[in-house]
Amino acid sequence: MNDSAFILIVEDHAKIRTSTLVQLRDQGFYAHAVASAEEADAFLAEQESPPDLLLVDIRLGGASGIDFLKRRAAKHSPVPAIIITGEASISETVEALRLGVYDLIEKPFTRERLLQSVRNCLDHAVLKRELAAVKTHIHQRHTILGRSPQIAQLRERIERVAATGARALIRGESGTGKELVANTLHHLGARRDQPFIKINCAAIPAHLIEDELFGHARGAFTDAKFAKPGLFEEADRGSLFLDEIGDMELPLQSRLLRVLEDGKVRRVGENHDRQVDVRVIAATNRDLNEAIAAGAFRQDLYFRLATVPIDVPPLRERAGDVALLFSFFLESFCTEHQRRKLTVEPEVFAALDRYSWPGNVRELRNVCEQLAIFGADPITIDQMPSLLVARDAGTCEAGLLRFNDAVDVMPLREFKERCETEYIEAVLRRTNWNYTAAAKMLDIQRTYLHQKIVALKIQKPRR
């Protein structure tokens, strides 16, 4: 709770108004008092921001404090309020509660009663704002950003599939956001309040995936000292996301097919089945039709999983979305790493649009996080990764260093020295000549970096 909160007192009784004002100011609050609703309206019209709390008498001469709050609520964002009352009727009390009034203080009230109510109300308002921020953050986590037609079509398809509860197979290149699509499918569907369990089939050794998915009985193998439910049981009544399903081995595909057919799982080492109700969402960056042709993926499992296929477009095909995503991620990472918002020079956005983004949205996120940590304000083209700002991709060769025919041939020693100089200068520019940050990026000691700067005669440019 912030003791410097701005509190407006609307009270027509002069003695109570003055006493309340003094008590609040004594506690460090920024308080102001007026005698009528008209004075309150005039005063608030001159303020740049609304008060943190309204302390309003229920009787304001011939007017009503409830009516004053109703007019405010109809025209402005809601403000936490406390009613001061001496003779509130039941109907007025009900109306106050309907308006969201936090508390009703009966006259005469003590200093302790006033301060307790004010502090509790302000604390409650802080909690509501924090909860709203959390909800916004959760919503953003499940929001697919973009204005391109491809993303508009993707969002529409997700909304329609989510409402049905059907199984879905999400297809797309690595880094396109398939897991975000799966999250959105679950949180827009009827199972949103039930478990959402995820497993990456490519990240877990093949001999452990069966145990992860189906669980085991006590004594099923040497280290099985306790019974363990599998992910299918944990996801009962919810959703199970099988990422990189194309990397699952054939024997396990047969067991998965059986579960999808009858909804029953059997733990390793048991001889009886357990019924589960799970919505399965799968994803892959492989062409499963090619895998089927090669005998690496079961066709019948494919048809079970791909009840509704959802294709996620690569970033290079999302015209106009790169700048939007870059700005969003950069601001998000600046907030996360407690940096003020960074501005971006226009030529940076032009470079972003020219780049093909082979790593898709994941690559763009990584670039933004690096800039949020090491970038200097404003973000300039010199701070961008070298791959991203290559001017003439048609004349570039593969590798870290790219040359064209105009580059002079020189002795190898001179070439190595020039490359080292240019690379160290590029890192120093990216870190705004912060030697500690540059040494960390180069994975060398700060003292060694100073030695190289002196030996290579690297000069920090003057402002």
How is this structure best summarized?
Helices cover 47% and strands 13% of the residues.
Major beta sheet summary: 5 strands, parallel
Q: In the CATH hierarchy, what is the class of the largest domain?
A: Alpha Beta
Tally of helical runs: 18
Mean pLDDT: 85
Radius of gyration: 32 Å
Number of strands: 16
- Global structural class: alpha/beta
**What is the domain tally?**
4
Helix content: 40-55%
CATH topology of the largest domain: Rossmann fold
- The largest beta-sheet arranges its strands as 2-1-3-6-7
Offer a few descriptive terms:
alpha/beta; 18 helices; single chain; 16 strands; 4 domains; Rossmann fold; 5-stranded parallel sheet
Folded structure, characterized:
The chain has 463 residues and is α/β, with parallel strands linked by helices. It folds into four domains: 6-138, Rossmann fold, CATH 3.40.50.2300; 149-313, P-loop containing nucleotide triphosphate hydrolases (Rossmann fold), CATH 3.40.50.300; 317-406, Orthogonal Bundle (Helicase, Ruva Protein, domain 3); 408-463, Homeodomain-like (Arc Repressor Mutant, subunit A, Orthogonal Bundle), CATH 1.10.10.60. It is built from 18 helices and 16 strands. It has a five-stranded parallel sheet, with helices on both faces. The radius of gyration is 32 Å and the shape is extended. The two termini are 44 Å apart.
